[in-house]
Write a structure and sequence with these properties.
Strand content: 15-25%
Structural class: alpha/beta
Largest sheet: 8 strands, mixed
Strand order of the largest sheet: 1-4-3-2-5-6-7-12
Number of domains: 2
CATH superfamily of the largest domain: NAD(P)-binding Rossmann-like Domain
CATH topology of the largest domain: Rossmann fold
Shape: globular
CATH architecture of the largest domain: 3-Layer(aba) Sandwich
Number of strands: 20
Distance between the termini: 33 Å
């Protein structure tokens, strides 16, 4: 929002953050790059800016940089989404959009190294122009502010004529060129498939292999790919901050294995303990059809799957290994494909997935928080308010609320939710298959099926913002409180702001089903909390990662529509 930009120094809020045994949030399986800081643990190696800190790569890079001794600054449109992250109190935040010159200038001022980790795949056909403009603004501002270095993570470009490249890879390559010619020394890292729990590429591989014991596939499954583990990507990214000042170039990065996509699926199956997959290749599946096919089978929507599939039409293998001259391999070498998959699957099984591909915002989703009726001047606002006294403690009710969605379902008419998810995917929406990062805890900014967590007031309120396709904006509030008589009360509120005549028609067409969907939701959530109270299976206090929670096999949590995505 213009005119309301502000610099947020999160250290001042440290008293409000939960206590943590690992304040830097360092991934125990991640690259070991920590430097010994001086002055009681304060950073010693300069200031770095990370863009895209709420995304898959950025969210994992920040704690690595903190551990390596850097003063970390992040630029975020939604600073509130950072509050639940373990490194929240160890960074400085600039509130603003990467497309706003003033915000970018403020973020880059006094920075030694700037990490450019922005992408706009979810914008659909218009992403190329958006990425070009964002890169130009960032490059010119970095030059004007005398930034010492830019580090950019792009895509591995195949050895083919430019007109044969996918739009995705063409755009990635163009962004890299804009940054390298900015006058600021730039290290462009080019990677193909990144193997790690929560990455879009890994989710495609995982779900295609697990859900299809036999499959008909397009020709590109026999193209060779050089995947790389997320741990090794992070090690290279951190190492680039110390490159000599005269280094201004692109580096190809990849793991030790060169495989076809078909081999990757078979090797994944072996690591996951699955039978060998039956794969039949055909010639008729275009990248567009393949993208829709992937969108149906996996949680990755077609809008993201299509450009990823298009990037696999050509072989993507490292053309050089020059990065090793500056950042040598660790003594044990880069992670093999099997080891990277094993690590990722372990994290998924342990519900220890740090970031996910779905962390990025969906275009067209409401940017403003839920409008409140007394102050609402934007037109009609429909609501469905319900409440129920629950014979259980507020903590029991909150556990059920915070675990809603994903495998735990929505506590009402599973078929209706499943149908709504299928309808959403049919028109290009995200559907229900995004699931949850963790089955029993959520953070602000995370996705829960086709909702995004807009607000979370621990033990009191969870507000979800709809990201399904519809002619309007929608929110769902789930809360718990104690009334004047000391009774636990569960409150539920659905809010809908229609857009045009179609929006009003949409509300009234689904209104007859609200009694079934929302009414049963209230009853079943209350019932689940009461059963949880009866069994005495209440979780200890939750930490930021939701470590101490009820087990996934608890009977009070129905397993209905939706799938958990790691």
């Amino acid at each position: 929002m213009r005119g309301r930009r502000r610099r947020v120094t999160l250290r001042a809020m440290e008293a409000d953050a939960p206590s943590q045994s690992n304040p830097a949030g360092v991934d125990p399986d991640s690259v070991k790059t920590a430097a010994a800081p001086r002055d009681g643990g304060r950073p010693t190696r300069g200031t770095v800016l990370v863009t895209g800190a709420t995304g898959y790569i950025g969210g994992r890079l920040v704690p690595e940089l903190i551990a390596a001794g850097y003063q970390v600054r992040v630029l975020s449109r939604h600073p509130d989404r950072l509050r639940d992250l373990s490194w929240f109190t160890d960074v400085d935040v600039i509130a603003g959009d990467a497309g706003e010159p003033d915000a970018v200038r403020t973020a880059l001022r006094g920075v030694d190294v700037a990490y450019y980790l922005l992408h706009s795949l979810q914008l659909g056909e218009g992403f190329v122009e958006v990425e070009r403009n964002l890169a130009r603004l960032f490059a010119t501002t970095a030059r004007d502010e005398h930034v010492g270095r830019i580090v950019y993570l792009g895509g591995l470009t195949p050895d083919c004529p430019p007109d044969q490249l996918s739009k995705h890879l063409t755009s990635r390559s163009e962004v890299g060129e804009i940054l390298r010619t900015s006058g600021v020394p730039t290290a462009e890292l080019r990677a193909a498939v990144i193997l790690g729990s929560g990455s879009a590429s890994f989710e495609m591989l995982r779900y295609l292999t697990e859900r299809l014991p036999a499959m008909v596939t397009p020709r590109w499954v026999t193209n060779r790919i050089q995947p790389i583990a997320i741990r090794d990507v992070l090690r290279y990214l951190v190492g680039c901050a110390e490159l000599p000042k005269d280094v201004n170039r692109a580096f190809d990065i990849g793991g030790p294995d060169v495989l076809t996509y078909q081999q990757m699926m078979q090797r994944y199956a072996a690591v996951a303990g699955l039978r060998k997959r039956i794969i039949v290749r055909v010639l008729v599946l275009s990248p567009t059809l393949s993208g829709h096919w992937v969108g149906v089978v996996t949680p990755v929507p077609a809008s993201i799957a299509k450009p990823l599939v298009e990037s696999l039409r050509n072989e993507v293998i490292c053309g050089d290994s020059d990065i090793k001259d500056f950042i040598p391999d660790p003594p044990e070498g880069l992670l093999s494909f099997e080891t990277a998959v094993d690590y990722a699957l372990r994290r998924i099984r342990d519900t220890n997935v740090v970031t996910r591909w779905s962390s990025a915002s969906v275009p067209g989703a409401p940017a403003e928080p839920l409008p409140h009726d007394p102050d609402w001047a934007g037109g009609s606002l429909y609501t469905d308010d319900r409440q129920r006294v629950v014979d259980a403690s507020p903590r029991a009710v909150w556990q059920v609320i915070e675990g809603i969605g994903g495998k735990n379902g929505w506590y009402s008419f599973p078929l209706a939710w499943e149908v709504r998810g299928l309808m959403d995917r049919a028109v290009g929406g995200v559907g229900l298959r995004r699931g949850r990062r963790h089955p029993r805890s959520v953070r602000v900014g995370e996705t829960v099926d086709f909702w995004r967590v807009e607000a979370r007031d621990t033990d009191r309120l969870l507000r979800l913002r709809a990201e399904m396709k519809m002619p309007g904006l929608a929110w769902l509030e789930l809360g718990v409180e104690v009334d004047s008589e000391g009774q636990t009360v569960y409150r539920q509120r659905a809010v809908y702001h229609p857009r045009g005549l179609a929006g009003h028609a949409y509300w009234w067409s689904v209104a007859p089903f609200h009694g079934v969907v929302f009414g049963s939701m209230v009853r079943n959530i209350a019932g689940a909390a009461e059963r949880l109270q009866l069994t005495g299976d209440l979780a200890d206090e939750l930490d930021d990662e939701g470590v101490n929670t009820i087990g996934p096999d608890h009977a009070a949590q129905p397993r209905t529509a939706g799938a958990v995505v790691a």
